[in-house]
Amino acid sequence: xxxxxxxxxxxxxxxxxxxxxxxxxxxxxxxxxxxxxxxxxxxxxxxxxxxxxxxxxxxxxxxxxxxxxxxxxxxxxxxxxxxxxxxxxxxxxxxxxxxxxxxxxxxxxxxxxxxxxxxxxxxxxxxxxxxxxxxxxxxxxxxxxxxxxxxxxxxxxxxxxxxxxxxxxxxxxxxxxxxxxxxxxxxxxxxxxxxxxxxxxxxxxxxxxxxxxxxxxxxxxxxxxxxxxxxxxxxxxxxxxxxxxxxxxxxxxxxxxxxxxxxxxxxxxxxxxxxxxxxxxxxxxxxxxxxxxxxxxxxxx
Length: 301
What we know:
CATH topology of the largest domain: D-Maltodextrin-Binding Protein, domain 2
Order of helices and strands: HHHEEHEHHEHEEHEHEHEHEEH
Helix content: 40-55%
Low-confidence stretches: none
Strand content: 15-25%
Number of strands: 11
Oligomer: single chain
Number of domains: 2
CATH architecture of the largest domain: 3-Layer(aba) Sandwich
Mean pLDDT: 89
CATH class of the largest domain: Alpha Beta
Number of helices: 12
């Protein structure tokens, strides 16, 4: 083979950062050495792997084709190296991206169990909304994602982790909190604080009310669930939030789950990964551990 693992690592780092200088910093190399390695790889392969836009770099179609294969080779090389240091058979690094509900209520237990059984797996974590996680998986920022709802992109594989549901919540002092049942007309008259567009929670809520409530008074949109939860607790707003994010507050009497018979907002939380990715034992390990953890600990009711 004329190319080296170092050259593939440089290629992958430039693809990740979009910059030769940032890739050099990531790999603890000089910028000139990084540029030389990339130039040598492109010369050996006889193809340009990046389009240059000033200092920014973006993958060509050849680079897109090469990247999953390069990442697999790099991963296998790391496993070989760790194996000779008497490490566990399943070892290496993985980048996990999760939406807020998954990151708060599922990921900590998954990581704890992985640490107990496979301590040589190193997991980095990013938290974004569902759209951000899907984009990150497609852009190689994350090797594995946990999202809310469905992803219909053919470039993504999806496997259900667990089921969850959304509920409409109000403060205990809100007028609707005293009602046994709340109508769609009453919801239309309320003031709302909701997740931002692109969040899985918001997508499911919008789909549930589509064709039922013509004009919703959305007063504020925020990314962070604790902000929405506090606004509802202290004010006269309604919100639609995951059961897991509000159950403790309902049990303490700070929030009330409104009974809206016309709305059914069940959803799934799922693992996603690139369809082009070769079989990866670390990803398989995390998926199996996540599903086992959900079943054994009854995380979602």
